[in-house]
Every structure is written in structure tokens, then in C-alpha cells.
Write a structure and sequence with these properties.
Elements lengths: L2 E3 L6 E3 L3 E2 L12 H13 L4 E3 L8 H12 L8 E6 L6 H15 L4 E6 L10 H13 L3 E7 L3 H9 L8 E5 L11 H7 L3 E5 L31 H21 L3 H12 L12 H8 L8 H12 L9
Parallel strand pairs: 3-4, 4-5, 5-6, 6-7, 7-8, 8-9
Antiparallel strand pairs: 1-2
Helix pairs in contact: 1-2, 1-9, 2-3, 3-4, 7-8, 7-10
């Protein structure tokens, strides 16, 4: 496994993390024994960076992670735990309440990276109120670092301007070979300011794994149900890219998922993808995306084909 510093923090994280959204009804991994096996496999593969959120299973994901780390006897300093506080919980008093509950579910004394999951779009909490509350939690030792997730550049600037003693260290963004909108503003901004880039959905919810074809687009019963990427009109455009990932996988002795993740980490040294996993073998597959590199020529082949894909989100 490769390791990098997370932005300007002193956190040393695996270049591939473990996303834990799947430990919820959204993805269907609600059996603790499966979650424990996934977490154990990640640790065995050298993955020390686990990303979750309060809303995943309404705390279930955090509970599973905390329980598994305790049962597996993992030393606190050997794992980097990132979680997220949703926009609904951003009243300053609620920031403290939510963090207390998150700490309890995770079974830890501090959280390495607390991220604001999305801006408080519906409740109109002033930006400086919740950012100062999070900063106070850093001062009090309950949070080590702050990050932002799913924030546009304008709100990132506003949030950073509220902090007086510290700065944010990361931006979590939707980013994969199909959805590259973050390259216009967010990734350049993060690189300019030394922020880590944490792509969620780095495999486009499985669309880039090679598991699905135009003749095998099942009716999903999880969060992918109705996802525009899997709409036949869109997946038809994506399919040539999947075929190229399969072709290059054969050339390098890798899986399509490993090719897609390797492309991402080559795009920027600041990128730390957090693919999810519903089975232990998915974790091993994701971990195999590092320790080697695509040639520049093959990276460019993927780049050019990827850039030609334009999906629409207007599917109904």
C-alpha cells in the first residue's frame, strides 16, 4: 500500500481509503458480520483510512466501524477515521450534540477528520456559526481536522474565512471517469491551496467495474435505483469506456476497477479515493489499484475517451 499526507494535516493515510456508505440500508450491507469482514480485509490490505458519515444508516455505519475496530483490537493511532456532519445538524449547538453522538457510536475519544457533509441548504444556518463550532471542537481536542464535502468553491471560500486559528484540510467531491465536473473549479482550487481531494463514487457506483453491460443492467434494489449513469441512454455512451478499461486490465493484469482508480490517483498527487465495498473481495480489488502506474500513453487513451462522454441527468 502507498501512503500520503492528507492535505496540510499530519495524517498519514493509505492512497486508497475505504468508503463506508455501504453499511446502511442505502446499499444493503446491514449484517454486522459482513461489515466486520470488510473492515478487517481493508486493514489487512494496509488501508488505514476509513470514511463514513452520520447519516449512513442513521448512525449504523459509525456503530459498525467502532464495534469492528474494538473487536479487531486496532490501536487508535493506527487508523484514520473520517466522518461527516450533515447540513441538517449545523445549528452551532447541534454541532456539539452530533459530534458527541458520533464519538460514542465510533467508540473513540476524537475524530481525525470531521467533514461538513453538505451546506445547510434547507435550514439557513449561517456559515460562520457552524464553522466556528467545529473549530472550537478542534481546540477542545474532539476533532483533529476539518474538511468540507459537496461544497462549491464559493462556499468553501466563505467557510474558510470564518476560521481564526486553523484551516480546512480537505474537499470531498463526486469525481470519477464519467463525472469530471470537479476538474473545472474544485480540483484546481484544492491543488492551489494544498487541500486533499477525496473523491466519493470513484467507480461511478460500480458502473466502471466491468460488472455491468448494456445487456446486463439490472433493476437495482439499492441506492443505484434510478441513477442516471445506469439509464440505458447514458450507459450506452459509457460502455466504450468500460470496454477500454477491460482491455487495459488484460494488458496490465488488473481489473477494470483498478485501472479506473489508478487513473484517478495519477491525475493529482492530492487525490485519495474512497471506494466502497459490499464484499471483502471488493476491498482487495480496490487495494490493488496502487503500487503500480499506467503508462502515460494509456492514461491519455482513457483521458480522451472519458472526455468525450457526456451523460444527461434529465432521464425522466
Amino acid at each position: 500500500m502507498e501512503y500520503v499526507k492528507l492535505g496540510k494535516s499530519d495524517l498519514r493515510v493509505s492512497r486508497i481509503g475505504l468508503g463506508a456508505w455501504q453499511f446502511s440500508e442505502a446499499w444493503g450491507v446491514t449484517d454486522y458480520s459482513i461489515a466486520r469482514d470488510i473492515i478487517k480485509t481493508a486493514l489487512d490490505e494496509g488501508i488505514n483510512f476509513i470514511d463514513t458519515a452520520m447519516v449512513y444508516g442513521r448512525g449504523l455505519s459509525e456503530e459498525f466501524i467502532g464495534k469492528a475496530l474494538k473487536e479487531l483490537g486496532v490501536k487508535r493511532e493506527d487508523v484514520v477515521i473520517a466522518t461527516k456532519i450533515p447540513g441538517d445538524f449545523l445549528d452551532p449547538d447541534d454541532v456539539f450534540r452530533a459530534t458527541d453522538r458520533s464519538l460514542k457510536r465510533l467508540g473513540v475519544d476524537y475524530i481525525d477528520l470531521m467533514q461538513v457533509h453538505w451546506p445547510p441548504c434547507w435550514h439557513n444556518h449561517p456559515t460562520c456559526g457552524y464553522m466556528k463550532a467545529l473549530e472550537r471542537l478542534v481546540v477542545l481536542g474532539k476533532i483533529r481536522y476539518i474538511g468540507l464535502s459537496d461544497f462549491p468553491v464559493e462556499l468553501v471560500e466563505a467557510a474558510r474565512s470564518c476560521l481564526s486559528k486553523i484551516d480546512i484540510v480537505s474537499l470531498q467531491i463526486r469525481y470519477n471517469l464519467i463525472e469530471r465536473q470537479a476538474e473545472y473549479e474544485l480540483i484546481p482550487y484544492a491543488e492551489k491551496h494544498g487541500l486533499a481531494i477525496i473523491p466519493w463514487s470513484p467507480l461511478a457506483k460500480g458502473a466502471l467495474t466491468g460488472k455491468y453491460t448494456l445487456d446486463n443492467l439490472p433493476e437495482f434494489t439499492d441506492v443505484r435505483s434510478g441513477d442516471p449513469i445506469f439509464h440505458p441512454d447514458n450507459f450506452r455512451k459509457v460502455w466504450p469506456l468500460v470496454q477500454l478499461l477491460i482491455e487495459l486490465g488484460r494488458k496490465y493484469g488488473k481489473t477494470p476497477a483498478q485501472i479506473a482508480l489508478n487513473w484517478l490517483i495519477m491525475y493529482s498527487p492530492s487525490i485519495v479515493p474512497i471506494p466502497g465495498a459490499k464484499k471483502p473481495e471488493h476491498v482487495r480489488d480496490n487495494a490493488g489499484a496502487v503500487g503500480w502506474r499506467l503508462s502515460y500513453e494509456d492514461w491519455r487513451r482513457i483521458d480522451e475517451l472519458s472526455k468525450s462522454i457526456k451523460i444527461t441527468y434529465v432521464t425522466w
